[in-house]
Amino acid sequence: MIYFVKHTDYVKIGYTTDIFRRLNELQTNCPVKLKVLALIEGSLNDESIHHQKFKHISSNGEWFFHNAEIDEYISSLNKDLMWEYGFESEDNYKFSKIKKCRLDKNMSLEELGNLLGISKQAVLDMEKREMQGRISIASILKSLEVMGYEFQYRAVPKK
Questions:
Q1: How far apart, in whole angstroms, are the C-alpha atoms of residue 150 and residue 77?
Q2: Is the pLDDT of residue 82 over 70?
Q3: 61 and 130 in one domain?
Q4: pLDDT mean over 114-136
Q5: How far is it, in rounded angstroms, from Cα 154 to Cα 50?
Q6: Computed from CA positions of residues 131, 19, 46, 76, in that sequence, does the dihedral angle turn out positive or negative?
Q7: Domain match, 54 and 17 both
Q8: Domain termination site, one of 84, 105, 132
C-alpha cells in the first residue's frame, strides 16, 4: 500500500506491506507525533509514480513539502483503507479501538477487566488480538459498551 504520513510541514509518501510496523519505524526516530493522512492500494511502482507527481515540491528523498496541492489530492482519495486500518479519526492508529477508548477514559487494564469480569492480562491479550484482526465483533462490542461507547460496523461497496 501507499501511505501519506505528515510530519510538521512535510509529508512522506512511501510504500509498505505492513503500515503499523512502518509507522513504528518512522516514529521511533521522530521527535513529533506522525499522522497518517492517507492509505491507498499500490505497489512500489505506484510509489514512484506519486514521487514523480509531486517532485516539484520535493524536500528530501521521499519527503515533500506539505501544501494545499497535497491536501487537495489526499482529500480526493478513497478513504476505505484508512477506515479498514483504524485511521478514520485522528490519533487512532497506534492502538486497537479497545485500547484507544480505554486510554481516552483513563481506565487501567484492571478497571476494564473488572467491568468485563476478566483479568487485566486477558484485557491486554484482547487488545493485542484486535490489532492482529483475531477477535470477534461480539468481544469488541461488549468491551466498548462497558466503557460507554457505541460500536458501529459498516460495509462499503467495492469500486
A1: 27
A2: yes
A3: no
A4: 91
A5: 30
A6: positive
A7: yes
A8: 84
